Amino acid sequence: MKGKFITFEGIDGAGKSSHIDAVKAFLSDRGIAVRSTREPGGTMLGERIRALFLENSMSAHTEALLVFAARREHLERVVWPALEEGSWVLCDRFTDASFAYQGGGRELGASVIAKLADWVHPEFQPDLTLLFDLPPDAARARVDGRGVVDRIEQESAAFHTRVREAYLARARNEPERIHVFDTRASLTIVREQVLASIAALADHAATVRP
Ligand code: TYD
Prior knowledge:
single chain, alpha/beta, Rossmann fold, 5-stranded parallel β-sheet, about 60% helix
């Protein structure tokens, strides 16, 4: 595909959302068409699935099936067409979140999630994933400071520890794709590191383009 697919990941409260706008502005300044979106969500149906997902308790299997249903819709209607047109797509969470939350947090295991991923988006994965990492107790303090806490954010410290471990395990297995940022550092430092990763990808894309 002509555009690049960049995903933003991390446990709740790790601080990913604050960097998406900066990346968007950075790429736009370079003349790159950018589209930002999120999962679950990103389409009308996907946003309805997001509301069902966040507002109702359900089995771990149902959670996994819902996020992948929303994902397929999102890929077909938004992500793949945008990438085909040459836009870069910035996505607030993607399949690594399913490995972390449903595979790790809910303990479904990585192999179940890998099967779903292989079926829903065979041979497609992000060009770059930015993983924002923070110890769960510090992340929790940030989430509590926001006021409204959803059902996933309300989960136990043990759940969030499993989520974090699953994310870090994926980063260890795919260090070229998944760049980890320690968000205990100041926002300015993390932002510089993030933009350096994005600049490297943009430079590389510019050199390989015919
Ligand atoms: P999040 O992206 O953190 O949105 P906000 O910044 O508005 O809180 O919320 C989405 C939640 O969905 C988050 O707790 C993680 C969860 N999630 C999964 O459990 N599995 C998935 O595959 C995805 C994409 C998200």
